[in-house]
Design brief:
The protein has 119 residues and is α+β, with helices and mostly antiparallel strands. The protein has a domain at 15-97. The protein is 58% helix and 15% strand. The protein is built from three helices and two strands, in the order ββααα. It has helices spanning 40-51, 56-93, 100-118, and strands spanning 15-23, 30-38. The chain has a two-stranded antiparallel sheet. A hairpin with a 6-residue loop joins β1 and β2. The relative contact order is 0.08.
Length: 119
């Protein structure tokens, strides 16, 4: 696999550029990202990283990993929900479903039974 390096240099009066480095499992093991950001953001970011006595690159790697993990988890959750909905639809098509009124009546009876057992 070859290294992927993305670079773009953009700077104007309203923005600043920042270089972010993170490892790739490639021949070069790292890539350079240059992004256009609001002028205040890089300074505030660097100050917060320094306050924790952490290199900015370490914080960026952590943010990227966290973002990737959240996105993967979100996709997994969506897949799980889709499967559950499809299973429910299949059971309804197979005649195994119950109407909302039947479910409500069943749980009302259960609640009444529990209330009666507390007395």
């Amino acid at each position: 696999m070859s290294a992927f390096i993305a670079t773009a240099f953009a700077r104007n009066d309203a923005g600043a550029t920042i270089h972010l480095f993170f490892g790739f499992e490639t021949a070069s093991k790292e890539a350079v990202f240059t992004m256009k950001l609001d002028a205040e953001l890089p300074a505030a970011f660097m100050a917060e990283a320094a306050a924790e006595d952490r290199p900015a690159s370490q914080v960026v790697r952590e943010l990227m990993r966290d973002y990737i993990e959240r996105r993967r988890q979100s996709r997994d959750d969506d897949t799980y929900l889709h499967r559950k909905v499809e299973a429910g639809r299949a059971s309804i098509r197979a005649g195994q479903g119950r109407s909302n009124d039947e479910v409500k009546a069943d749980f009302a009876a259960r609640r009444a039974g529990l209330a009666g057992s507390d007395a």
